[in-house]
Every structure is written in C-alpha cells, then in structure tokens.
Design goal:
Blueprint lengths: L1 H18 L6 H8 L17 E9 L6 E11 L10 E3 L25 E7 L2 E2 L12 E3 L11 E11 L8 E4 L2 E4 L5 E2 L2 E2 L3 E2 L15 E10 L3 E4 L2 E2 L2 H4 L2 H10 L6 E4 L1 H6 L8 E11 L4 E4 L3 E10 L4 E9 L9 H14 L10 E6 L4 E3 L2 E4 L5 H13 L1 H5 L13 H16 L1 H17 L19 H23 L1 H15 L6 H12 L4 H8 L7 E9 L2 E8 L7 E7 L4 E6 L9 E7 L4 E7 L12 E3 L2
Parallel strand pairs: 1-13, 20-21, 21-23
Antiparallel strand pairs: 1-2, 2-7, 3-6, 3-10, 4-5, 4-7, 8-9, 9-18, 11-12, 13-17, 14-18, 15-17, 16-19, 19-20, 22-23, 24-25, 25-28, 26-27, 26-29, 29-30
Helix pairs in contact: 6-7, 7-9, 9-10, 9-11, 10-11, 11-12, 12-13
C-alpha cells in the first residue's frame, strides 16, 4: 500500500512539474498559488466569480435617435476581496470624438456618447463624474461603504445616448430599424488573476463579461416589432393573437413560417395597438443581452431539436428587409447550424432557448443573436452565419476573456466553420475557402508581425498580428491537436474542458492543462511550440536515400510549428504511396526520417499539408535521379 501511495505521489509531482513548463504570467501564477485554478485544468478549490442581476428598461422611439434607459443592478461580490472602486463599462462611449480607437471614425459614426443623468448606490443618490478620464469606455467610482466579501450592492442608473448612424457592431440599420448592443452600464468583470477589467474598448478587440441574470423591458411604439436575447415573457400583451399563436406554434415545428410578412407589416396590425408596447424578456446566467426594433422587417421562425437525448428544441428566427434575398433562407441556414454544431463539432447541445439572425452590417455574434450583412451569394451568407452561431460555444458557453485571448473564441469558431463547411460542400471546396480566408495571408507574409506568439495578449496587437493570431493560426493549432490525438480523444478533451468551465472564466492555461490531464499526455511541448513561440509552418525534404529496404526520406521542420503533413512518393511505374506524419513526430526533434519500404524505383517525393500550408514550397518536392 505504501508503495502504491508513493508511486501516486511521484506521478502527481511529475505531472505538476511538467505542467509548470509552460510560460505563465506572474498574475496567472498567483491564481494557481491561491488555488482558484488547478494545475490539472480544473477550477481550483477556491475558485469564485462575481455576478449581477440586471433589471433594465429601454425606451426606443424611431426615428428619434435618442435612446433612454434605466436599470437596477444587484452586484454580488463572491470574491475574498473587499471592493472599493467598482469599474463600470460604458462601451458606447467608443463613439465619442477623441475616444481611443483602432479604426477610422466617420462623422456618421460619432455621437456624444453615453450621458448618465441619475446614479444611486443602495438607494442613495450619488454624483456621477462625466469628466474626461483618458479611458472613455470605462469609469471607476468610489463606494462610500466598501463592498465586503460575500456581500452585495445595489446600483441604479438612468442614462441616454444617440444611436450611431454608422457602426460596426450596433447602431442604426435604417431610419426605423435599430440594433442595440452594449447599450447599458455594466459592472466590469472582477476576476482572480487581473482583478478589475480596466481594458479600454477600441472597436477592434472584443469583450469579457460576467454571467448575469437579466430582465429587459423594451418600450417601443405600436407597429414596431422587438427581437431580443432571452425569452419573451408577454407575447399575448404585445402581439395580436394570431401572430402570438404563430410564434408559439413555430417553437414546436420544423416548418419555416412567416410570422409577419410584407402584407402584414403594411396592414400595421401585428402588434397590440397601444401607443407604446412594453416587450419584456428574461435571460439568466448569460453574458450579455442585445435587441433589435423595426417597423418593416419581415419575421420568419421555426425550431430545431438541439438535444436528441431530451428532444429539447430551440427557436430559430430571422428579421430582415424583404429585399434581402439571402435572408429568405436564413432560418434554414440557422436551423442547420444549430443542428450540426450541436451533434457533430463541438457536439454539445445548443445551450439557449433560441437564436435570432437580424439583417444588419456587423457580421457579429451576441448571445442568442446574430447581426449579419446581406450578400448576393447565399452560400457565403450561410458560411458567415455558421461562423457567428459557432460563437455560442466559444465564448458564450464559457466566459472567455476575448479582449486578451481572442484566439480562445475566434480560433474555435474558425475551426468549426471549416468542419461544418466540409459537411456542407465537401472537403475540397471548404478547404479552398478556409485557405483563402484564414491561411493565405499569414503563411505568405514573411513580416515579423506574422510571427508574434499566439499567446500574446491581443489587446496590445492590431492589424495582421491580431487578426491572424486570433483566427487562422489558432484554428490550425486546434486542428493540429485534433490530428495528433485523433477525433475520439480530441472530442473527450474538448468536452471535458467545456464541461469544467461552462459558465466560468477559463484562461488559456486552463485549456492547455485540461487537454494534458484528460489525454494523459504532457502536451506542453506542443503548446509551447504552437502558442508560445514565433514559429510557422515550413517543412522541407532534405534528401531521399535508397537502401536495401527501400527509400529513407529525410524531412526537416524549418518553421518550428508541429503540424501534420503527408509525404507522397511517386514511383517510376506511375503509382504513388502516401504516408501521414502526425504532429507528435516533432515532439523532440526538428528532423525525421521516414522509410518507404519498397522494391520499386522512386522517381520523386513531395509534401502536402492540405490546410496546413507551407511557407516555402520550393523544397516540398524532391526529384530522385
């Protein structure tokens, strides 16, 4: 028994030491020291996270561009720390002149930002300072009474803002159609490794949010339909009976129905004929809410079984201008996305009760909502919506810090985009599109910006360094792990990571260590090469030597990334033979010999990486004299 215990202790110690081989920032190390995170990839015994309960009421009266809001927030401090200076995110201040932005701002983009007219703490009126701070999209305030561990504070805000005429992620779609996102004052994330999230939104990187409970009421004029994150609580109060009945029926049917068509919209009898209708929505344990309003967007709906074990359905809806031909197929595209992604990759049932795709300009994801452009090529529209819906699992299933580690969500959405594309249009067409959009720009650009390690916090990056690290490079890294582990083990690791961190805030190290733990392999050599180094994909054939056994082909890994590659021999008789090199070949070497046992005469040998495109293809073919 003592020998067994001693062996177990040695194994644990070895696992702990090997896990420590990865570079880790000092603040992340401190989280592991405090045991809020565990070296086996699980949440630590002291893990915690804060959350809020938001009750929001918005008044939206198109074509009036001014939007008014009020909210009550109960913020619960589950941390062991006493909080004195909470941070409030005011994302729409990105539209203020002079705000720090990575993108150009036209006159139509600019507004005067968010104006807070009333603020109270625990029912006591408190002054709010709108003076410039150097960080427009967040602001701190001082609590008169510090918020103790395991206590809560009640915050109340009243505010207004002018909706932007031209925006990337939210704003005016047309004079009577608005898409509202990031529209409310939000308590920033306070976590175990950065403390308060003081990151400035620059309209380039994305977001980091807590999981909160929301009640949202949208007051809109009669004949305006509202679509939102969450479950509509009062369809009978805001919709005429026949439209409420059609909506209800669509949630139990595979059929695609037009709840409100152009004739219905023209008749102006879809909504209850009050001067203003109050649409009430609820959404719990979710990272954000968004909504859209329009008096002329067509409304289609259906549903799809997303969990075949329980027969749970999710509603699928679309809202669009009838002139957008591709959107007439959008509910069908979205149904397919939910079905395939729930049952194949990632293979976790869609976690929400619905999704709504709104025709806008952003090609942007939100919990239960997508804001997509219209395209003349409906196949491309399908491609885009599949990518955006894939974000449901990364980052919304887990509260990923997209601002710093965008590769943890965009890289996965890009991976699923390829995998569902292969099922949709076949390997060749899907991989051609993937290489065109996700790989070509990176692998064929020799500039230093392209070789910055993926783990680099994306908030300090821009341009190609940011885009390729988040999308193509990270996606190829995940696909390389999939190739190395095989589908079954890869799926087991991925599902366990998602299960462990569902509704929580994982870091990249939680991901890496979970895969190490579940696979039973120390993959730190792989993570270090692919995510922490300045490597790229570049293999070359050094030589092909003939012997009594056949031909030994020597392949050099010049770029450093451990990617899979196929080695294809062509013989003098015109036949070919292919061998697959798993990324594990490169675990402790930069050169490997591969034997082709044959009595035939080999005329040439070549390398083919498929989507793992090679930076220098001049040495990918070797002619044998």
């Amino acid at each position: 028994m003592k020998k067994i215990l001693l062996s177990a202790i040695v194994l644990i110690s070895v696992a702990f030491c090997s896990a420590q081989e990865l570079y880790m920032p000092r603040n992340v190390k401190e989280a592991y020291r405090k045991e809020t995170r565990s070296m086996d990839g699980k949440p630590g015994k002291n893990y915690w996270q804060n959350y809020g309960r938001y009750n929001i009421t918005m008044a939206v009266l198109p074509p009036n561009r001014n939007v008014k809001g009020k909210e009550q927030v109960t913020y619960i401090n589950n941390s062991p720390d006493t909080l004195r200076n909470p941070i409030i995110k005011l994302i729409l201040n990105i539209h203020k002149p002079g705000a720090l932005r990575q993108n150009d701002a036209s006159a139509d983009y600019l507004t005067t930002g968010v104006h807070i007219s009333s603020f109270s703490v625990n029912g006591k009126a408190t002054s709010w300072n709108d003076a410039p701070t150097g960080h427009d999209t967040w602001q701190a305030f001082r609590l008169a009474q510090p918020l103790l561990p395991h206590d809560s504070v009640q915050l109340s805000f009243e505010w207004d803002f002018d909706i932007s005429l031209e925006s990337n992620r939210e704003g005016m779609i047309d004079s009577t159609t608005y898409f509202l996102a990031y529209f409310y004052p939000r308590v920033a994330v306070y976590d175990d490794y950065y403390g308060w999230d003081r990151m400035q939104f620059t309209d380039a990187q994305e977001f980091y949010n807590d999981f909160n409970d929301y009640t949202l009421t949208v007051n809109a004029p009669k004949n305006y339909i509202v679509w939102s994150t969450g479950t509509l609580q009062n369809p009978g109060e805001v919709l005429q009976k026949n439209y409420a009945d059609k909506l209800s029926a669509s949630m139990l049917s595979d059929d695609i129905v037009t709840i409100a068509g152009t004739a219905d919209l023209a008749a102006k009898k879809i909504t209850t004929q009050n001067a203003v209708n109050s649409w009430k929505w609820t959404a719990n344990n979710i990272s954000d809410v968004t909504f859209a309003v329009s008096d002329h967007f067509v409304w289609d709906a259906s549903s799809v079984v997303v969990d075949k074990n329980t027969n749970r359905r999710a509603s699928v809806q679309a809202a669009y201008n009838d002139t957008a031909k591709d959107f007439h197929q959008m509910v069908s595209f979205a149904r397919h996305s939910l079905d395939w992604l729930s049952n194949n990759w990632p293979g976790v049932p869609y976690p929400f009760e619905k999704t709504t795709v709104v025709q806008g300009y952003a090609d942007m994801e939100y919990p239960m909502m997508v804001n997509d452009n219209t395209n003349s090529d409906s196949a491309f529209s399908k491609f885009v919506v599949e990518h955006e819906i894939a974000h449901t699992w990364f980052p919304f299933y887990m509260g990923i810090n997209e601002t710093r580690y965008g590769f943890m969500d965009e890289g996965w959405a890009t991976t699923f985009e390829l995998l569902i594309g292969r099922a949709d249009v076949g390997n060749e067409k899907a991989e051609t599109l993937y290489k065109q959009f996700r790989v070509n720009g990176w692998i064929n650009d020799p500039q230093a910006e392209e070789d910055i390690p993926i783990i680099t916090p994306v908030n300090i990056l821009s341009g190609v360094a940011m885009g390729n690290n988040e999308y193509g490079k990270a996606s190829l890294g995940y696909l390389a792990v999939k190739d190395m582990l095989g589908d079954d083990m890869f799926r087991k690791c991925l599902h366990e990571f998602m299960n462990r961190w569902h509704g929580k805030h994982p870091t990249p190290w939680d991901f890496f260590y979970t895969f190490n733990d579940v696979s039973g392999k120390n993959l730190n050599w792989f993570w270090t090469s692919w995510f922490f180094s300045n490597g790229y994909i570049d293999f070359g054939i050094q030589k092909a030597d003939k012997s009594r056994k056949g031909y030994t082909v020597t392949i050099q890994n010049n770029g450093g990334f451990p990617a899979p590659v196929d080695v294809i021999a062509t013989y003098a008789d015109g036949t070919t033979e292919s061998k697959h090199l798993n990324p594990e070949v490169w675990s402790n070497t930069t050169s490997t010999d591969l034997l082709f046992a044959t009595k035939k005469t080999m005329s040439s040998v070549a390398l083919s990486g498929g989507v793992f495109m090679d930076a220098n293809r001049k040495d990918n073919r070797f002619e044998i004299k």
